[in-house]
Write a structure and sequence with these properties.
This protein has 7 helices and no strands. The chain is mainly α. It is elongated. It starts with a helix and ends with a helix.
Length: 179
């Protein structure tokens, strides 16, 4: 028959084992979600490296989209082609936009290394998404961007906020486990 202290020791060991397993599970989930965000941000930036090619592809596959969206894509593509021919440095500036996406994605690497210490990156990213939503509608209205396009643009930021908030909750749980 086991002694009382044997039972207490076994309970403590089981508690510590569960704590370690919970910590590893949370860390794995956080790292997976952060990696997903990094890939999405990089892919979004990569589209800015080849805007005319991407728009040409969308025009070639216009049966996938509603007519209103197709006419908007044609207008954007025409504007970019005319601009690229007359002012190629504007396209160069768009490439810097793509570069900034890569830099922003790299910022999330710190969260992969130490989510608790670098939780500020998540708070910063949530704030960026909130600012982006405001910018989409203010700038979109000022520049006569169709409302449906503003909704599409802001939906990326809304999805980002939801995903980042989920990550933030997991980081808080991880911090509690670590004590």
């Amino acid at each position: 028959m086991p002694c009382k202290w044997h039972i207490l020791l076994l309970k403590r060991l089981l508690y510590l084992l569960k704590k370690v397993m919970d910590e590893r599970r949370l860390l794995r989930q956080i790292r997976l979600l952060i990696s997903l965000i990094m890939v999405i941000v990089i892919l979004a930036g990569m589209a800015a490296f080849f805007p005319i090619s991407l728009l040409n592809w969308l025009e070639d596959h216009n049966s996938l989209l509603p007519e209103k969206v197709n006419s908007w894509i044609q207008e954007i593509n025409h504007g970019l082609k005319v601009t690229a021919d007359a002012y190629p440095f504007v396209i160069y500036a768009i490439h810097w936009l793509a570069f900034s996406h890569i830099i922003i994605a790299l910022l999330f690497a710190g969260v992969i290394v130490d989510p608790v210490k670098n939780r500020w990156v998540i708070n910063w990213a949530i704030a960026c998404c909130m600012i982006a939503i405001t910018l989409v509608f203010v700038s979109g209205y000022a520049n006569r961007i169709p409302f449906f396009h503003q909704v599409i643009d802001s939906s990326f930021a809304i999805a980002g906020i939801l995903l980042l908030y989920m990550i933030k909750k997991k980081i808080i749980s991880l911090e509690k486990i670590r004590g």
